[in-house]
Amino acid sequence: MERRRESGNVLRVLLLEDNSRDADLSIRKLTQAGFHFTSAIAPNSKEFKQFLEKQSYDLILGDYRLPDWNGLEAVRWLRSSGILTPFILVTGTLGDELAIECIKAGADDYVLKENLDRLPLAVQRALAEQQLRLERDWAEKELRESESQYRLLFHSNPHPMWVFDIETLRFLAVNEAAVHHYGYSVSEFLSMTVKDIRPAEEVPRPLQTVKDETFGSVEHYDEPWKHKKKDGTVIEVEISSHPIMFRAVKASLVLANDVTEHRKLEQQFRYAQKMEAIGRLAGGVAHDFNNLLMVITSHAELIREHLGDRERVDRYIAHILRAIDKASLLTRQLLAFGRKQIQDLRVIDLNSLVT
């Protein structure tokens, strides 16, 4: 598609005219009006087509009556060939009905040769309208390309995506990943609201709201949402939403990332860490109890060997009692840990406490 012509460029003008004097008059009028242009003159249809095959033109001025052609046929040939260059008939007497027919066929204007003073104004208006058409066509092309890229990104995204009306919560569009992941068809999705994919216990949880002052911001939710598939399976999803205008409706574009398996793996990992910690704790407790049992066992053997030595027996019994106290303390600590009791261990002076 041709982009809009930059202002200040030299115009390329093609004249379809078999009378060189009339062609010169038109050229002189445009020059006097301040137009900067180069011109070519085609006296018949064959040369006219040859000129247009070699290059494009910014403006075409054509007589209606030619030896082998007429202006109406020229306009029809131009438009059927896809050439949208502004075409102005510069001719002698032309009836209203014929003039209207030429305009309908695609002529931009017509100027009578006896009133060439109107030619610069007609040219200026035709060029301005052409400029507007080019700009509009270019904007529409850019919009189509943008929409095409959006549709490509939307439908090819591996994560479920959808658009819903923030007022009615009704689905307006869904991508293939959402259809595949949730099990609903496109028509089923479009007949549902966002609440329909949420379990009953999740429905009271408020949905995001879009305020005018924050329109265009991205919202991400750290806490996962729970969604329900068509088969009843409940999954956890992380949601990111972006407010958009969709078919003149305030809507929200949502990307959902299924984290159900990820959450299960996290729970398994935390459970494994917990079991590892419990294993280390059990190993440490067993080691401590084993040390205390060794003290008790060894001193009990010594007592049996020295029953007649009262002093030794008392000393061995004291060692056993201290080991029993340590074992009792260790047992209390284990019970407190198992019952999740809060311990506040402090060194205190019993004398001052009793006093």
Structure overview:
The longest helix has 46 residues, at 260-305. The protein is built from ten helices and eleven strands. With 355 residues, the protein is α/β, with parallel strands linked by helices. Strands 6, 7, 8, 9, 10 and 11 form a six-stranded antiparallel sheet that branches. It is rod-shaped. It is 49% helix and 18% strand. It has helices spanning 20-32, 45-54, 71-80, 96-105, 119-156, 176-182, 186-190, 260-305, 310-338, 350-354, and strands at 11-16, 37-42, 59-62, 87-91, 109-112, 161-165, 171-174, 219-220, 225-228, 234-246, 249-258.
Offer a concise description of the structure:
This protein is an alpha/beta fold and 355 residues long.
SSE inventory with pairings:
Blueprint: E1 11-16, H1 20-32, E2 37-42, H2 45-54, E3 59-62, H3 71-80, E4 87-91, H4 96-105, E5 109-112, H5 119-156, E6 161-165, E7 171-174, H6 176-182, H7 186-190, E8 219-220, E9 225-228, E10 234-246, E11 249-258, H8 260-305, H9 310-338, H10 350-354
Parallel strand pairs: 1-2, 1-3, 3-4, 4-5
Antiparallel strand pairs: 6-7, 6-11, 8-10, 9-10, 10-11
Helix pairs in contact: 8-9
